[in-house]
Automatic annotation (TrEMBL):
Protein name: Transporter
Any GO molecular function: transmembrane transporter activity
Record's signal peptide: none
GO CC, alphabetical: plasma membrane
PANTHER family cross-referenced by the UniProt entry: 4-AMINO-4-DEOXY-L-ARABINOSE-PHOSPHOUNDECAPRENOL FLIPPASE SUBUNIT ARNF-RELATED, SMR FAMILY PROTON-DEPENDENT DRUG EFFLUX TRANSPORTER SUGE
Keywords linked to the UniProt accession: Cell membrane, Membrane, Transmembrane, Transmembrane helix
InterPro entries per UniProt: EmrE-like, Small_drug/metabolite_transptr
Residue ranges crossing the lipid bilayer per the database entry: 43-65, 77-97
Chief subcellular location: membrane
Amino acid sequence: MTLTVILLVAFSIVLDVIGQLCFKLGLDRLPELEGGFRLGAFWGQVFNAPLLWCGIGAYVIEFFVWLEALSRAPLSLLFPAAALAYCGVVLAGKLFLGETVSRRRWMGTLVITAGVMLVCVGHA
């Protein structure tokens, strides 16, 4: 993998993690609806939630970054590397949201990281 591809994939992963954090924080900050779930009121809240729009913006930028990465490297290399976004989301959930992460989840995260390393080293 070239340095440019590594930076593109890393940027894509960061944008994915930022998008997920924005979605979670944005939804958690929505006020509860009285009288149960009402789809129309929910969508009204969603359209007025700045953090949700930031998450959407991060995903739009990520889409174009990902296309650029795809134009430079094989999908069979990039897609496994993009799995590091799962690891980033687990870490961000712990650090920024104060989520409890079980030992089993940390182990799974390490297995994903090791798998990505195996795939990427094989393409070096």
